[in-house]
Amino acid sequence: MAGPCFKIEKNFPEPLAGVDEAGCAPLAGPVVAAAVVLDRAKFPRGIDDSKAIPAKTREAIYLKLHKVARIGVGIASVEEIDQLNIYWARMLAMSRAVDALGFEPAMVLVDGNRCPRWERPSQAIVGGDAKCRSIAAASIIAKVTRDRIMDEHAREHPGYGWETNKGYPTPEHVRALDRLGLTPLHRRSFGPVRQLMLAL
Hints:
There is one protein chain. The chain is an alpha/beta fold. Helix content is 41%, strand content 15%. The chain is built from 7 helices and 5 strands, in the order ββαβααββαααα. The protein has a 5-stranded mixed sheet. A hairpin with an 8-residue loop joins β1 (16-22) and β2. The radius of gyration is 17 Å and the shape is globular.
């Protein structure tokens, strides 16, 4: 199967921003979104869905993208996730990412089946991170940015394995919750965390 390309993007006006997020499923940490405007004549090789490429490759492409692309990053905090729910926190992070570009793109392509409630030309594309190069680039920026945030939090809150699981509900993380309890970075609205709170 071919990787993401500009085939879909070519149907829309430029400048075009691809948008994707990372961190909807974890039990801890923020959700991070990125908006990326690529130069179609100058972009790093190997751009793909962030889940499909190794961590070292993601890091290398991340660094190259920061040299040649326009990038905006938006973050929704744990408090916002618990207050709004993860769906609306995801939408908030994506809106902030596009705002952070510093200009209004002519078109925004969003990974998924729905766009945020905003007043800008946009289209949602299911599986966009595997089809559209701009969205795939955004998935890399969002993933690496969030992984780095969780690496920092892992040093502040040792024992949960966030340096490897990035807050996802791995067996290691769930066992640590039982053993060590909750941190301020755990999402109280998520089932396993809420169950632990009820047991305390």
